[in-house]
Amino acid sequence: MSNADTHGDTKPTAFAQAMLDLRESAVLSGTEKRNLAICAIVAALWALLPLFSTGYILSLGISITIFAGLATSWTLFSGPTNYISLATAAFFGIGMYTVAGGVNLLPYPVLILIAAVAGALFAALIGLATLRISGVYFVIFSLGLAELVRQVVSWGQHVMGTSSGLYVLVDRSDSVFFWQLLVFTLVVFLVSWWIGRSRLGFALRIIGNDEVVAVHCGINTARAKVTLFIISSTFAAIAGALVAPRWSYVEPTLAFSPFLSFQVVIMSLLGGVHRLWGPLVGVIPFTIMWEFISAKFPSQTTLLLGVAFLLIVYFIPHGFVGLIEDFSRRRSGIWAALRSKWQAKGGGHE
Amino acid sequence: MDIIIIGLLLGGTYALMAMGLQLQYGVARIMNLANGEMLVAGAFGTFWFYSATKFSPLISLAVIVPLAFAANWAIYRVLITPLVRRAKSQGQLEVDSILATFGLSFIFVGGLLALFGGDYLSYSYLARPIFILGQPYGLNRVTAFIGALALCAGLYIWLHKTRAGLALRAVAVSPSAAGLVSINVPRASALAFALGGAVTAAGGSLLSIFLTFDASLGVVFTLKALVIVIMGGVSDIRGAIVAAFILGLAETIVASLVDPGLTLAAAYVLFIVILLIKPEGLFGRRSS
Amino acid sequence: MNSPSAALTIGGVTKRFGGLVAVNNISFTLPANKVLGLIGPNGSGKTTMINLISGALKPSAGAIHLHGDSISDRSASEIATLGLSRTFQIVRMLPGLTVLENVQAGGVFGHRRMWGTELREHSRALLQKVGLQGVDDTVVSALTYIDQKRVELARALVADPKVLLLDEWLAGLNPTELKTGIALIEQLRTEGRTIMIVEHVMDAIRSLCDTCVVMNSGAKIAEGTPREVLSDAEVIRAYLGDIDA
Predict the structure, then answer these.
(1) SS3 C132
(2) Which residues 219-258 of B have a C-beta within 8 angstroms of A?
(3) With an 8 Å Cβ cutoff, are A217 and C112 in contact?
(4) Which domains does chain B have, with CATH numbers?
(5) Mean pLDDT, residues C49-73 taken together
(6) How confident is the prediction for chain C on average, in pLDDT?
(7) How many Å apart are CA A107 and CA C228, to the nearest integer?
(8) C80 and A210: CB-CB below 8 Å?
(9) Closest residue of B to C16, CA-based?
(10) Can you state the angle between helices B90-116 and A301-315, rounded to 10 degrees?
(11) Distance from CA of C171 to the nearest CA of B (A)
């Protein structure tokens, strides 16, 4: 071909392109190195938790860790795109059921892998069917998804004649369990961070702002959305697989409880969905508060969760991150105003 | 044959429920994820009314419809209006209203749990057979069907023959253009939202004559109503009615031939088929 | 038909919406390094034409080629990667992103794929070129209308497109801004860019375009230099109506 001198006519293959993209995002800036270091220190300190406490505090720590992972992976897709997924429980339940159904047949690590693959495949199917069209359809689809999978699983158990409850007995101490979840959550964080600074992450932000512009910028929007949805859902499925042994008894109504989807959304919103650390800021206070509320008012949890949700949507729509950033902006604004006033005064004296 | 008739009878009540959601989404532009909970509330209200007074559940409509209308008017004024005001774009309003009504649905469920507990509630009314084409059907199903049909017809006539109905249809086509011809759009939206809620609650009332309810069922009905509205096209009442009958039939077929626990799967299968083949709805035209 | 110098070839393109024929059997060629003006009264199908070329709509019949590649059956994102950029009739900003990020958006997956420092520097340079300095990190909503239009132009240019489509890019500007705008496009023209503009501002058409295509009610009614078409009797009738009416 003689026109190889113009731009873009010699396109590298998709694989080579992906490798190039990988290499160009491997260069870290100074701030990024610093943030990674801080992140590593916090994680290391958090990992010491089981050495100091057991029982109640450790189980609270476990809840925080798992929700941090779930909320961060939810935000990975729903944050930049504004496509609100209400289906976390569906994928979480799939992971859990994979482990529950196969625990007597296959080794546990293999089951986690299978759970991840099952979650990814299911997400791919749903993504391909719903994400090519407008966002509302996706939200609606995700709304009843957990209930749908629950019905199908119950039916399957009914047809095969197995009992609806399954026991998952894997020998793990609480500490090992905690560290396992911590590793999971760290992986979610690193992947989210890496995607957030990659082309794909930027593409997703463009899509969230204006899908028409995104298309005309050359972004294959369907592929970007489906990819991210698959990654996010796979994490939810892995989380379910990891949590299954802790519950030890799994049944459809528990595994596919819509409550979980709801909690993940509310925690992410409370923290703020436009920063990587946003969900974490929401997860910690909410989990602790929720522990308190569900102990104090066990029969009113649904009602109170709904109230908390409305309060967040109406009064802190941009989450804690929004509040913090507003505050620091206002503070720097005040400083700037004071400084210019000061200078104006100084100028007046001369 | 009896599958078809049972399916049609169910479809009639579904049509009413879907018209409620259509008013809320098509006119007021609020994707109300608490719609199914309003339906369950209507069903519970009728249950309570019937247990307390022993009057016909149809009479309970006279109480439930105005109550639901008032409640939904209040919800629109107190909860939705601030969102409409602060939204910078239609997309922002969509996200906000989805989140708000999703939270609201949990408040409804919590409230219903607190008032009625978590048990399945049902009552027996007109549980006698009626013979259609030589086959016996529950008289309660037929009653609910006729009631739903009467309400649907009334609503249709109201929308097409009155000034207020015309205003609502105008807002459904274009809120900005409707505003230009001096239709009070916020008022019309509130009216549509309240009316939609009332119609949905009436649908719940009628369904409760032959179905068993518990507090957590709302989400299933929300989804069914949404599937009907999407299938029928957002702004087309005739489409919604046809779609309601299709869903009623599909559900009855699945329930009687496969398993009664899989009715939601029927709705989802229809949903996927529509998304893949005709995302603009049965009677919708592909827009540019 | 596809002569080597033809950047964009439109061959017998028709678009129907139900019974309405918005674009009726239109053919024309945009030579490389030239500026073509697409004009016509409101509702004559110009924006539909732009949407057909950029892939936002699919033609009902006919073919569109970009440097010999058929693009009429490709998706809008593929067409963009092949080297066709556009602006929008009503400016479309990405409100959640900064000015610089708005420009960068055009280069991430565009015709010329860039990332990191290369993309940042290139985007900055383009912002300067369109006359925007020191606003890189501002939110776009703080910009004036013409500045937003500048951002949109920079975004369209960042991927180094083979063909640039400007859909009424000069509309809504005041007379001073208009002069600046025309000068900006003039500068692109002297650089040798291939541009197709849809415009109502006749001054711009006269001073910028090498050739003009005139549409009315979906059909092409004239083609030629701006001077020729603007004195064409049928064109005058399309704009002003029959003299004796």
Answers:
(1) coil
(2) 219-220, 222-223, 226-227, 230
(3) no
(4) 2-277 (1.10.3470)
(5) 93
(6) 89
(7) 81
(8) no
(9) B288
(10) 160
(11) 23
CA distance A342 to A332: 15
- Gap between the Cα atoms of B87 and A265, Å rounded: 20
* Rounded-to-integer distance, Cα B151 and Cα B165, Å: 15
User: Which residues from C are below 8 Å from B when comparing CB atoms?
Assistant: 17-18, 57, 95
Q: Looking at the partner chain, which of A82, A130, A309 has a beta carbon nearest the beta carbon of B275?
A: A130
How close does chain B come to C122, measured CA to CA in Å?
Answer: 32
ipTM value of the model?
A: 0.91
Provide φ and ψ at A198, rounded to 5°: -95, 175
Q: Distance (Å, rounded) from C-alpha A143 to C-alpha A85? A: 8
Q: Which two tokens stand for residue B211?
A: 């179905």
- Give me the amino acid identity at A275: R
Amino acid at the residue A322? G
In tens digits, chain B (288 residues) has pLDDT values of 678 888 888 888 899 888 999 889 888 888 899 999 999 999 999 888 888 888 888 888 888 999 999 999 999 999 999 888 888 777 788 888 888 999 999 899 988 888 887 777 777 776 677 777 777 777 888 888 888 888 888 888 998 898 888 888 888 888 888 888 888 888 999 999 999 999 999 999 998 888 888 888 888 899 999 989 888 877 777 888 889 999 999 999 988 888 888 888 888 888 888 888 877 777 665 443
Q: How far apart are CA A213 and CA A219, in angstroms?
A: 9
Close Cβ partners of A304 (under 8 Å, ≥ 6 residues apart): A293, A297, B110
Put simply, whether A213 touches C (Cβ < 8 Å) is yes
Q: What is the pLDDT of residues C6-22, one digit of tens each?
A: 899 999 999 998 888 99
Residue A302 has its nearest CB partner, among B79, B106, B265, at: B106
Partners of residue A147 in chain B, C-beta under 8 Å:
219-220, 223, 264
Tell me how far apart the terminal alpha carbons of chain A are, to the nearest angstrom.
72
pLDDT at C133 over 90: no
B274 contacts chain A (CB < 8 A): no
